[in-house]
Amino acid sequence: MQKVASYVHDFWSLFYPRLCYSCHKALIREEETICSFCRFELPRTRMHKERENAMSRIFWGRVDVETATALFYFQKGGKVQQLIHQFKYRGRKDIGIFLGKQLALEIKNNPLWEPVEIIVPVPLHPKKKHKRGFNQSEVFGRGLSAGLNKPMIANNLVRVTKTSSQTRKSRFKRWENVETVFQLNKPEDLKGKNILLIDDVVTTGSTLEACAHKLKEVKGTRVWVATLAMSV
Questions:
Q1: Which CATH number does the domain housing residue 198 bear?
Q2: CA 202 to CA 75: how far, in whole Å?
Q3: CA separation, residue 184 to residues 90, 138, 150, 211 (Å)
Q4: 25 shares its domain with 37
Q5: Euclidean distance between CA atoms 172 and 105, whole angstroms
């Protein structure tokens, strides 16, 4: 039966090959979403290994987080930008889920990240979520949740005000833009929890900072931060 399934898979691959989302070449049977070559070429940060790193320093003096990491470095025109663009704007949710699992492989069983109990994605405004069809941070979180075997809570931290685009804003203007737009529906459910706050890309960190402040208003919470990519 297994051999038959393998033959059927190979037959259909002749007509409908699965392609790497990065280089668009055909994937071999054991590969998923991104080919092995592109996976090797993608610029991983490896920041998860150190408590104090380039990303955690973004939040120094702004909000107290345990540590922070990003899976990749983000450069304009690079492969990471292409992947995230396909994920966010072309609805390729499997990219987000796959990359969430990749990050889980990095931080799972790492002493710096073991205390994490729940995952909380940065929320989109309901109108923006409706227009896009999904919240990319939630989709990324689904892969991360599956890989870490930790629950994701996506309906407690919410965005109550629609903000203007963060593009081309200064760091201060970005902070002003998000300072009062988040709230918690049931803060009591987060009391004393170790929370992994996640988003797709971090630039100045203003949105994550605002979310972390809101989470830390709840007594006893501790916050970790992780993203798919970090702008360089």
A1: 3.40.50
A2: 12
A3: 30, 16, 20, 10
A4: yes
A5: 35
Determine the Cα–Cα distance for residues 138 and 57; give it in Å rounded to an integer: 25
Please indicate, yes or no, whether residues 34 and 52 belong to a single structural domain of this protein.
no
Amino acid identity of residue 64, one-letter, is: D
Q: Summarize pLDDT for 46-66 with one digit per residue, the tens.
A: 999 999 999 999 999 999 999
Q: How many distinct structural domains can be found in the chain?
A: 2
Q: Tokens 């107290």 correspond to what residue?
A: 64
Domain of residue 31, residue span: 1-41
- Predicted TM-score (pTM) of the model is 0.86
204 plus 214 within the same structural domain: yes
Structure tokens at 136: 């990319």
Res. 30 pLDDT band, cuts 50 70 90? confident
Question: Using alpha carbons only, how large is the chain's radius of gyration in Å?
Answer: 19
In whole angstroms, what is the distance from residue 209 CA to residue 121 CA? 13
Q: Is the pLDDT of residue 13 over 60?
A: no
151 and 131 in a single domain? The answer is yes
Do both 223 and 158 map to the same domain?
A: yes
